[in-house]
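FORM 7B: Structural annotation worksheet

SECTION A. Query
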Amino acid sequence: MNDTWKILDPASPSPVLDHQLDINRRQFFGQNATGIGVAALAGLLGRDNLLGSQPGGKGGLPGLPHIAPKAKRVIYLFQNGAPTHVDLFDYKPRLHEMHGKPVPQEYLGTKRFSTMTGNPKGKLMLESVEPFHQYGKSGAWVSDFMPHTGKVADELCFIKSMHSDAVNHAPAISFLLSGAQIPGRPTMGAWLNYGLGSVAEELPGFVAMTSVSKGTSCGQIFYDFYWGSGFLPTRFQGVKFRGSRDPVLYLKNPDGMKPELRRGLLDDLAALNELKYRQTSDPEIRTRIAQYEMAYRMQTSVPELTDLSGEPDHILDMYGPQVREPGTFAYNCLMARRLAERGVGFIQCMHAGWDQHNSITTELYNQCRDTDQPSAALVRDLKMRGLLDDTLVIWGGEFGRTPFIQGDIKNRKRWGRDHHPYAFTTWLAGGGVKPGLTHGASDDLGINAVHKPVHVHDFQATIMHLLGIDHERLTYRFQGRYFRLTDVHGHVVNDIIA
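SECTION B. Predicted structure
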């Protein structure tokens, strides 16, 4: 079928008249879809809870959660650029013994590395930069880079056998957050916002915040698809809060605009949008209505959210000296706790600077200084407020870094490590996971996940299970097939569930 149907008068010389008579398929069905077509569309929209959902309401799909949830919300402390597992949490004494020696070929096989490494044959092993110590009753090994995290080790569940399919940053981040290396799929926060809805009345159900350590040479970029809704209606995408005292643009009324005038304008606009929706049943129209209403409510809720005057000094001091500076990781961690208190279901704090190809001995200290204390403080703060039991906190990056060196081993100031998807460490706290547990292991050089390996899709399935969702049953039909976060893979890691 041609994309454009034309009803033309061959005797007419007017191109304007010809243009007016052009009718494309979208216009034809939008203006003439009646009878059985509308009934079928209404059925599809009703199944996806789009037709009946009310703007600004709690939403969520019928029948969810599938099982009793252990967590009500997620705070994902995502470390862009890939923290080095063998320098932070995955203690490998043999690395010290092998320092400066070629990586054993039997550990590598035919593995693919980034173009910066190319063929890893002959690469030299690099010992951990700082020593490790055991912490707490669990005896968890944590590097001296992360002393504050070590002090809360008994609250944490370390997964030391994570592995991924992607070898470069953006595809790996997209894979971990959306289940696909190519952008365009809904991210985890969007899936949960779509499936479970939101209990937050005055704030979005999914919020994203970003930060970068000062002075870093890391060139990681925060792409909008890291918190996108993909093919889900856009009302479920993450709302990015900027790192400033005015975190959301265009919330304030223009000069001379009184609140009652704004309210009347929105009511009239909603009425017009509703008329158009009845004509087309386009769910994006409902998205616009909902977002206008949310923005109106956020005019009050966001200033209250960012007002730290009521926070005691001992709480602010717990997060570290940068907590009073908007846009820092410490500030975002405190905002995450305040958002969780106000019912936001998925909070994604993304911090860049971990891509240390030639700065392990310099910039890694800055990264850990900026993130270690706030991350631990968030866990402690949530626990003190009784929120940790039903808040799942996740800390980790898109992959790890090579146990062998990138650069000249004789030039310590320029030591670096390349991308490493075959084994890395993530920790979780609260939200129904077992505290004080170390799950899985990499080999004695930290190269391969060898004991109870956890693939990215297994990790995603487990997070959804903790929130009461069967990952195989939360789907969305798009372009002729049903999609889900875990694609056609994934198994729940029951060993870490309390």
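SECTION C. Observations
The chain has a mean pLDDT of 88. Residues 4-47 form one domain.

SECTION D. Sign-off
Analyst initials: ____
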